[in-house]
Amino acid sequence: MIPNPGQTKTTTETTSQSFTGDQTLKQPPYKQEEIHLYEQLLSSWGQNGTFPAQSAQYLQSTGLPKEILKEIWSRSAHGKTYLTKDEFFLAMRLIVIVQQGKLLNEQSLINFVPQPPVFNQPTQAQHNTPTKTQDPTKITQQELQEYNNEILKVSLGMPFVSEKKVVDYLTKGKGVPEAVVSEILSICNPYHSIRISKDGFVVILHLVSLKRRGIQLPPSHQYLPPSFTSLLGELLIDPFIEKENEENRSLVSQASQISITQSPNYNMNTITESSALISIITDITATSTISGSTTQIIGYQCR
User: Fold this and answer.
1) Of these four, 139, 212, 258, 291, which has the most CB atoms within 10 Å of its CB?
2) Half-sphere exposure of 206 toward its Cβ, with a 13 Å CA cutoff?
3) What does the pLDDT look like over 2-27, one tens digit per residue?
4) β-bridge partners, 82
């Protein structure tokens, strides 16, 4: 178990329960700044020294996707409907790990670099602490202006840039290694769209910048923050699944237009067969949509 964060440590490392639950792992000791902030958050959000599940909504102010927050909760609570003080402290560190752009694994916790979690809507505890931090992966206004200037030179005013042109500009114009370009495009353009929007190009240039600063990139677009995925837009939509869904929607629309009118040849079988057709097509569409959907895991903050 995680040692009491409020206790004074004389060793350089402490231990906590493993993510797998069958062994222990090491992590750096809690700094006084961490303890002070986490205790304030727990005091504001918790009840009787614990953090109940119904208070988990406060964690959404981190901006992380719900799937990632659920994973953090699962790894911290170990099946309970509340977090103890120690477990709440661990959850805060796991949030920071994701915001730093690292994976949720034992190694990330072992090498944890303490910093306050970033909340989109500042909490009272953050207002009361002198420690301030800025998300290193956020696109600043200055960076956005620089990226737009670069894109204007490449796009020549067009709303889109071909993937080939992007590759040529990055490798020949900016000297980015081909392996890095391939890594970034696999994240930002996983379905190999032949044209890339200006907003998508902004994210690509920003990931190049992060890579050059030594910040670890996510393994896929599913780990990008919502602010990045919204810019990438259609680049993250599987064209084959979208086409299949469109065809199914068209079938449902056609079936719903079947007109059953009173006539000498009218009989109940006509209504039954038409209704069954609509029902079957609707079921097929629903199944296809569910099987073809992509579950986004997180809110990844690159570092």
Assistant:
1) 139
2) 28
3) 444 544 332 333 333 344 433 345 78
4) 52
Mean pLDDT of the chain: 74
Question: What would the two tokens of residue 137 be?
Answer: 């992966």
Give the whole-angstrom CA distance, residue 227 versus residue 135: 13
Last residue of a domain, one of 128, 151, 179: 128
Number of domains in the chain: 3
Residue 116 maps to which CATH number? 1.10.238.10
Element (H, E) at 160: strand 160-162
The whole-model pTM stands at: 0.42
Expressed as residue numbers, the domain containing 162 is 141-235
Asked if residue 200 lies in contact with residue 228, where contact means CB atoms within 8 angstroms, the answer is no
Cα 87 from Cα 104, distance rounded (Å): 15
Reported confidence tier of residue 106, pLDDT bands at 50, 70, 90? confident
Residue 233, sorted as left (phi over 0), alpha (psi -120 to 50) or beta, turns out to be left
DSSP codes, 189-225: -TT--SEEEHHHHHHHHHHHHHHHTTPPPPSSGGGS-
**Cα distance from N-terminal residue to C-terminal residue, the chain:** 28
Q: What is the amino acid identity at position 289?
A: T
CA 34, chain centre distance (Å): 24
**Phi, psi of 195, rounded to the nearest 5 degrees:** -130, 145
Which tokens belong to 73?
A: 């909760």
> 37 and 119 in one domain?
yes
194 band by pLDDT with thresholds 50, 70 and 90: very high
Helix (H) or strand (E) holding 287: helix 268-292
Q: Which tokens in the block code for residue 9?
A: 């440590």
Cα distance between residue 223 and residue 101, in whole Å = 8
